């Protein structure tokens, strides 16, 4: 099931990711249902789009709780369209209710390991810290990472894997491949030359080929939830970031389907 989480209340540099679910759905009209890289077709899946959660005016922790409460009762594999990255915490909490041994793979340019940001524990800059409140660091891999404070980089050393690349090494894969996985994709993991429409773009990002390589490995895993967050259509009038996001969503839906 697809569900939107249009929320960007804690975004600090460039707001607008609340417009992402609508923009990705719009862009999906240009994307074929068939994936030639996977030889699979969305038309062969039982898909449902539940629309968007009503998160208007919610404090961030309340918005996260609404995401958790909704996704905890979803049958099948939920895929959430953000919105800012904090909404991922609610989706991870929902997955944990059914899979206490959950592992997490994060694609993100930023470490998001501050414990507080601008005096707030709930912020797009504290997302991974809030996930770590719930999941041990040796079950979390962070890919595409290339931005953070000195203190965040030190804290990141406790994670199972941290890499600027989009691939997992053999050690990390051996830990994660045997457990249920949650996959979260922040669009800023990709290079801004192909995904300029995001709140905090960062050079030296991933390519689409990097993502295809990761997807080929995930076919062998059990993915129980996923999201794609931080698309900001306000800063990409060309629409190409939303189009890339819609393509990524198609690939994720196809690889997770059983």
Summary keywords:
single chain, 258 residues, alpha/beta, Arginase, Chain A, 8-stranded parallel beta sheet
Question: Secondary-structure map with pairings?
Answer:
Layout lengths: L1 E4 L14 H9 L5 E2 L4 E2 L7 E4 L7 H12 L7 E4 L4 H12 L4 E5 L19 H6 L7 E4 L6 H7 L4 E3 L6 H7 L3 E7 L21 H11 L3 E8 L10 H17 L2
Parallel strand pairs: 1-4, 1-5, 5-10, 6-7, 6-9, 7-8, 9-10
Antiparallel strand pairs: 2-3
Structural commentary:
The protein is an alpha/beta fold. The protein has one domain (2-256): Ureohydrolase domain (Arginase, Chain A, 3-Layer(aba) Sandwich), CATH 3.40.800. The protein contains eight helices and ten strands. It has helices at 20-28, 60-71, 87-98, 127-132, 150-156, 170-176, 208-218, 240-256; strands spanning 2-5, 34-35, 40-41, 49-52, 79-82, 103-107, 140-143, 161-163, 180-186, 222-229. The strands form two sheets. Strands 4-1-5-10-9-6-7-8 form an eight-stranded parallel beta sheet, sandwiched between helices. A two-stranded antiparallel ribbon has the order 2-3. Helix 5 (150-156) links the parallel strand 7 and strand 8.
């Amino acid at each position: 099931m697809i569900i939107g989480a249009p929320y960007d209340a804690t975004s600090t540099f460039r707001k607008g990711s609340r417009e992402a679910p609508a923009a990705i759905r719009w862009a999906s009209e240009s994307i074929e249902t068939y994936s030639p890289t996977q030889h699979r077709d969305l038309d062969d899946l039982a898909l449902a789009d539940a629309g968007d959660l009503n998160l208007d005016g919610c404090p961030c922790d309340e918005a996260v709780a609404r995401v958790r409460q909704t996704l905890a009762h979803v049958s099948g594999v939920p895929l959430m369209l953000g919105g800012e990255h904090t909404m991922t915490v609610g989706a991870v909490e929902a997955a944990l209710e059914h899979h206490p041994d959950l592992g997490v793979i994060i694609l993100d340019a930023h470490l998001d390991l501050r414990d507080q940001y601008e005096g707030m524990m709930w912020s797009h800059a504290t997302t991974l810290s809030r996930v770590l409140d719930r999941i041990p660091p040796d079950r979390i891999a962070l890919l595409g990472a290339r931005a953070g404070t000195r203190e965040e980089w030190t804290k990141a050393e406790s994670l199972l894997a941290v890499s600027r690349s989009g691939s997992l090494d053999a050690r990390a894969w051996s830990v994660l491949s045997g457990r249920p996985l949650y996959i979260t994709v922040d669009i800023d993991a990709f290079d801004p030359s192909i995904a300029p429409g995001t709140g905090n773009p960062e050079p030296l990002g991933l390519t689409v080929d990097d993502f295809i390589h990761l997807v080929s490995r995930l076919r062998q895993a059990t993915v129980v939830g996923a999201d794609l967050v931080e698309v900001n259509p306000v800063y990409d009038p060309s629409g190409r970031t939303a189009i890339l996001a819609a393509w990524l969503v198609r690939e994720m839906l196809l690889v997770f389907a059983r």
